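hey all, quick one before standup. I had two proteins in the batch that finished overnight and I want to keep them in one place so we stop losing track of which output belongs to which input. First protein below, input sequence then structure tokens straight from the run.
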Amino acid sequence: MTEAEIVEAIEKLRYHVKLLGESMDFDKHPVEALILENDWGPDNISQAHDIFEDWDRRLEQGGKMDSSSFERDFDEKLGIGYQGLKSIILAFYKNDQWTNVCEAYVDSFGKNPSVELKMIARRER
């Protein structure tokens, strides 16, 4: 294969993966859909789990959720802002992962969580 053919094949594969990601059922495979949606590799999802693990430990030791610090961790380590973080929170919550951290984050907004996160405020899964 020539270099141009390799580039064309890679572009086609990227397109196919994009289509697969868009057609994936988020309710059945929330974390997998998140990975495809964000074009993450193993290191990215591992970093997200590390952030959640750190906050889980803090909460278990009696600490309080600080939504600004939590959001800053995602911004600094993964380049994810508030809008992207909502997708991560929803994916892990729907997958029954890090639910206490997800709930603490949503609860930190009091009675005014974003519309997308209200299901967590109501503890719906």
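OK second protein, same deal, sequence then tokens:
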Amino acid sequence: MHASLLMDVLTLCVQTGHTQHCSMVLEQMMSWANRSDSKELPSWQYCRDLAAQLDEFFRSQPVSSIAIDDPWAPFFRATAEIIIKNSRLDDVNLGIITASLTCAGGVQALMPIMDAEGIAYMAAKKKASVKRLVLHMHAELLSPEAIAQAKQDLDELFMTCVSTVIERFDFAGLSDLTGDGAVNKVIALLKFSFDAGVGIHSYHIVLNQLFSCAGITRGQLLETYLTDILVPFVDLLRTLFAVLGVSIKEGPIKFFCSVVTRLFVSKSCWKKACRDKIYRCYDFWLWLLRVWMYQVFLAKWSYGPM
């Protein structure tokens, strides 16, 4: 079943004033795409191709001639969902998702797709895809004229997505990475959060996780985690914030940097103090040895003339 043939049928229905029949055509198409074992393409690709042609058709019509509601909205909403959950989210597919969601009602069409269950599935199975989806939706879904409630709903959705990605981030595995790999992964996570429109509101979650994996919250500091990850991270954090225009004096960030600095200084000073004590002990015992040898020398030569 080719999208171009379906478009011919749908266009005929619209032009003859029988738009109500379009819902039946779309439902049959979706049913066929989902159950056919002999189809050449996956279900989402049939839906994507038809959605692209429908969107182009709507754009070519006078605004008043096509009402973007039933029977179109259910199809576009289903198309957005099946592409999000089953396809590789490249630029083409992300563009179709945005167009489909816009035709289906915008943010309100996205909310049921990216509910708690949907976000958890995406974060577990398609972590890279959920990042691309969030960044694309943040940049493209809302128009400047969008109402305040839609903006608030989308901000809350992005915060949930970012928090879920952070929760599934392997903080413990950072210690297995070499070079700057560990620090750069955390910086990328923070940058994703900022670019998604969440700003620094999720940063405290990341910083607390770093403290936990370093053993700081349990009172059992892992010194290699401190020296190899946390200390280099503070310097890159300062650089990142300079680029983002964020003050490093912000509450959780200032606290994090102060704790890391204090721990590093205390450990370094403690080691230096230990070395100084060892050197002093060594000097003392060397001095005693020299005194003893001098006394032995004097005793030997004091009996020599006799």
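Flagging for whoever picks this up: Residues 276-282 have pLDDT under 50 and may be disordered. The first helix runs from residue 3 to 15.
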